[in-house]
Amino acid sequence: MQDFKFYAPTEVAFGRQAEEQVAPLVKKYGGTKVLVHYGGQSAIRSGLLDKICGLLDEGGIPFVKLGGVVPNPRLSLAKKGIDLCRSEGVDFILAVGGGSVIDSAKCIAYGLCMDGDVWDIYLGKVKPTAMVPVASVLTIPAAGSEMSWSSVITNEDGDVKLGYSDDISRPKFAIMNPERTFTLPPYQTAAGVTDMMMHTMERYFTKDDDMDITTDLAEALLRSMKNAVFAVLKNPEDYRYRAQIMWGGSLMHNGLTGCGISDDWATHQLEHELSGMFDVTHGAGLAAVWPSWARYVMHENLSRFVRFAVNVMDVPNDFTDPEATALKGIEAMERFYHDIGMPINIRELIGREITDDEIREMVRKCSRNYKSTCGRLKVLHAEDMEAIYHMAKG
Amino acid sequence: MQDFKFYAPTEVAFGRQAEEQVAPLVKKYGGTKVLVHYGGQSAIRSGLLDKICGLLDEGGIPFVKLGGVVPNPRLSLAKKGIDLCRSEGVDFILAVGGGSVIDSAKCIAYGLCMDGDVWDIYLGKVKPTAMVPVASVLTIPAAGSEMSWSSVITNEDGDVKLGYSDDISRPKFAIMNPERTFTLPPYQTAAGVTDMMMHTMERYFTKDDDMDITTDLAEALLRSMKNAVFAVLKNPEDYRYRAQIMWGGSLMHNGLTGCGISDDWATHQLEHELSGMFDVTHGAGLAAVWPSWARYVMHENLSRFVRFAVNVMDVPNDFTDPEATALKGIEAMERFYHDIGMPINIRELIGREITDDEIREMVRKCSRNYKSTCGRLKVLHAEDMEAIYHMAKG
Q: What ipTM does this complex have?
């Protein structure tokens, strides 16, 4: 068992009336001038942006707005945000949207408290010591960024997607109204659930078999999400199961499912190169890579994959053949991905065969020019990454 | 589903080396002069108190000490602590011990930020708006006070035990080293596990059947605790399972298992009168009352008791007879209590038959002179309380 720190200070306001609390919460956490940060048209069309701005107005809190965040959020917009916040004297950043908007907000918040280039933080050259407070009104459950310490930013200059994690970036509050997710299209819903499940699977597949509570909670959450996603794909306005997904997305990435274990994150790193290169939906990219990763590494802790098959995927345990049971668990996960409209390989993800040159380029980036590894259950070197991408070609 | 707030900001440092972080954590959360608050001899004998004081010394943090906290912590000692802290200029309270010490620390911390009598907070006459920061080095997993918003204090003047809950009282940090619980005697260990399981059972037995994640997580935690307690009763120095119990005690009372549901707390309120009158161990008192409470209220949501029987107590589901299955679940819980050395009625708890006069006195106190009810799954009036106490006589 690993010694651990658990720190999830984000105040969650959850339910149909949650948005009403936005102005008091901004004040409680010290905001006097707010950047309302958002993505595209959906926050405008739904009326949510107007509602939030109206509530800030009523609360006497001045604000400026910056929209235009795209999936795989761009460094250039974050830099624009930093300039805007500096000139406007912003001291609180409110993200209205999903993980991309929250990650962009975190990047702006880091940048506001440093002199140099905020990209240096993501490059690992600079460690931030402070940031402007960030909070969110969540509309897309997936990334878990609303309670997490992570943010991922894409530098268009070279299509490089990098993440940085720091407890100082844990958001102050998160407003979650499941009704705001009723209009999420099926593909986004499924990709979101895939992403949130993967946040816990990246932790679940570990060599640390002795932290029972963490494993038990992870399995309970994974089963809950599997159940909930079919309900909302059938009926998008099913409040009960939209709520499970929304709250599950936070719990699966706020640290709860990582206590006492070594986490892996290889699938995420392999996927970052896919969405960096092809601008695909992150969750879909994860589904395209995971089965190949799983088959490649499963012998590092076979009993863990057996446990996953039996306790999460409801595969009958063939006690005489753990490898067969483990493989059936991976196959069951592939069926689950197909059932919810997710790809299980790169061909299904990008609509054509990936070329060997493209794989080589992804390996180069993922290995930081052959200098870095990824993963911990099995440490993946460049040749391992290449093997997994080839297995995932489809 | 109920709208909810989730707020668990306490920073947890967990593991064999956790104590080493005490001085940096006190500084991080603004402490410049500390009250080290503790209970009896065990913190001295084990060397923990000396270690913590030494670490504060090394960190250059001045402190004063106040020991003597007893189970069912007394108002008089807390008042002594308030006076001491005022005269010494204390601005941070570090509890070294279990729930009683932490609850006493919270009471002192409330009292330091008000002019009048701190008991008025517990009487509901005054709502506190601030308190001195509190943190803990946990030695007894049970009460969950190290992450919770609750504290319970006994006023010896009239043997009245009252609780008060407020988010401002959530501790800043909790240091948890499972090795520090190796010396906990079997009875204290079992009573602690009973208490922590009850913190989740008080939430689990609800009419809100639609918050699946919360229910799934609660069942996972309850099963984990059932499993872990036998391991540590067999081998008190089993780090793995001492760790499950220590972390489980926090998760089962930090709010996680209450999200989206109406909680009950009748068993706790019925028990408070027992430990107020007979000064018994709180966890043992809960075990003595719960089976009778459960039989009295189970028809308010029978399917919930069936679910508990099947998913937590491993009772085979007799689909044709839900009531029989539910009752078997309660009986299985009684066997579990006996297996770990806990009582299942008041006779076993206090070693003699309780008198009708004593029951009447408990009912009077529990109903606040026949003016209050308790419980939410079934709202209990004075006559219900009396019926349950009589069922629990044994």
A: 0.94
